[in-house]
Specification:
The chain has about 525 residues and is mainly beta. It is built from no helices and 40 strands. The chain has a 5-stranded mixed beta sheet, with no helix packed on it.
Length: about 525
């Protein structure tokens, strides 16, 4: 819009020499105002700041006006026409030493105006960059993914506005994701070729300030996988619930020392069981008593420093063993050789049916005697007369389906009885006034045990109270039949007894020399 002002010097044509005369019009200079910023405004160093100015002119249209912008003496936005609304815009990046902004306007005839505001440039910081991984002393391989991570930040810019890149002196620019998370962490995985790399993390902010973080990284050839093996317990081993199970294994690696390997034990039923260090010679031990009542596949996983791994596994069963008790015979019992001995046991199991329990009776001398399964009530019995003479430790064991064993043990003796003795009674004949004596001898014992004798006396077939080797005259009457039974014993069992009998004889009367006596000195026909 243009506002025009005229001075009319003559409103009437004056005829002066027959000519018309019109006075020349004066030009008004344009003006400009910086409208976007007030004086002494604070501006961040290095960042784009958008300025706006408005112009006015009484003589010219806006399209006829041009504006240029200066910072100090340096033109930063060259002469250009203003907008149809009479506005001029300029985006300026300030250096720390800048102090002012100038907008200058000109009309078509060169008349102009200018506006100036002072600015206070606030220094800004360069962005920050830190390489978190890889690290200079870590091992890396050309066939293994390498974790590239860093921490970036800026006091003025949001982390997502920063320009981030990775590069290698060997492989050049690395195509990695550099989008930061809320904490300013960037993370991605990539490969590097074999060799020594100067790795660089470069961060640039909106002001153009750049920070570089560098490190030297040695990358080896292809990584060799670690080797590992579970040594104990053996596969299909069984353990009781709560029992401490000792796992022994080996772990080795061709690239790093065994102590740099990480080892994890786990169960397909219980999950991760724990970790354990590896000794320098590659040996390792892991102990746990936490396995649940189940059949477990136990996994050993060994990882090297870059995550390459090996695995080994075994199956172990954990449960409750059968409860086993020997009912008969009783511990300490003695049996004669060749006699039938009854064996009776009782079994129970919390998990398995009785017909799934394997039963075995064994003797320390004879070995396995009999096998089988208990009946539905858990009873298992048999008898045998084939055990050899001697001391036997008898064991009853029950094995369940997980391989767990319950057992009970007793000790019995199978004894060879001593042989029958030779017995004599004397004197023979024996009279009522004599002492009857039994003599026994000749018993032997195959087991080498000393033999003793027990005496039983019978008077006319009736057991007498005497257990001595003789019977006195006070007990003897003529015509009685006395029998002695002698029983041999080797300290454990009685042998076959021997009996001997004798009849008490009547002795003949005896006559001594007769004597005739009288109470007086003479004997008469009328005397007694």
């Amino acid at each position: 819009m243009r506002i025009m002002s005229y001075s009319l010097l003559l409103s009437l044509l004056a005829c002066t020499g027959g000519e018309n005369v019109i006075e020349k019009q004066n030009n008004t200079a344009p003006s400009v105002l910086i409208a976007s910023h007030s004086p002494d405004v604070e501006i961040l160093e290095g960042y784009i700041e958008s300025f706006r100015a408005t112009v006015s002119d009484d003589d010219n249209e806006f399209s006829e006006l041009t504006v240029a912008w200066y910072v100090g003496d340096e033109i930063v936005c060259d002469w250009a026409s203003v907008s149809p609304a009479g506005e001029s815009f300029c985006d300026i990046i300030f250096a720390a030493e800048d102090t002012n902004v100038i907008a200058e306007v000109r009309d078509p005839v060169g008349a102009g105006g200018r506006a100036e505001v002072s600015v206070l440039v606030v220094p800004t910081d360069a962005p920050t960059a830190q390489i978190l991984s890889p690290t200079q002393n870590s091992n890396h391989y050309s066939d293994q993914l390498i974790h590239f991570s860093g921490l970036i930040g800026d006091n003025e810019d949001a982390t997502e506005d920063l320009i981030v890149s990775w590069s290698s002196s060997v492989d050049g620019d690395l195509i990695l994701d550099t989008s930061p998370d809320a904490d300013g962490v960037i993370s991605d995985y990539g490969y590097l070729s074999e060799g020594q790399h100067a790795l660089e993390l470069r961060v640039e902010d909106s002001s153009g300030k750049i920070t570089k973080e560098q490190l030297v990284l040695q990358v080896g050839g292809e990584n060799a996988l670690p080797t590992c093996e579970l040594l104990t317990p053996s596969n299909q081993s069984s353990f009781q619930v709560g029992e401490a199970i000792v796992f022994e294994a080996t772990a080795l690696d061709n690239n790093v020392g065994a102590s740099e390997l990480s080892v994890t034990f786990s169960s397909d039923k219980d999950g991760t069981l724990g970790q354990t260090p590896v000794n320098s010679d590659g040996s390792l031990t892991f102990v746990t008593d936490q396995l649940s009542n189940n059949t477990h596949v136990i996994f050993l996983v060994v990882e090297d420093e870059v995550g390459a791994s090996c695995q080994d596994s075994i199956v172990v069963s954990v449960g409750t063993p059968p409860t086993v008790e020997i009912i008969e015979p009783q511990s300490g019992e003695v049996f004669s050789l060749g006699t039938d001995i009854l064996f009776n046991g009782s079994l129970s199991d919390a998990e398995d049916a009785m017909n799934d329990i394997s039963v075995s009776w064994t003797s320390s001398s004879a070995g396995e005697i009999v096998t089988g399964s208990p009946d539905s009530q858990g009873s298992h019995q048999f008898s045998t007369n084939t055990l050899s003479a001697g001391l036997h430790t008898i064991s009853l064991s029950g094995v369940d389906t997980t391989g767990l064993t319950g057992s009970d043990t007793i000790t019995i003796r199978v004894n060879t009885p001593p042989t029958a003795p030779t017995v004599t009674l004397g004197p023979d004949p024996i009279y009522g006034d004599g002492t009857l004596t039994a003599t026994a001898s000749g018993s032997t014992d195959d087991d080498g045990n000393p033999v003793t004798y027990t005496y039983e006396w019978y008077e006319d077939g009736n057991l007498h109270s005497s257990t001595l080797t003789n019977v006195g005259a006070s007990n003897l009457d003529v015509g009685e039949v006395w029998t002695v039974r002698v029983i041999p014993n080797d300290g454990y069992t009685d042998g076959t007894y021997t009996e001997a009998s004798i009849t008490i004889s009547n002795s003949e009367p005896t006559l001594t020399t007769p004597v005739i006596s009288s109470s007086s000195g003479g004997i008469y026909n009328d005397s007694v």
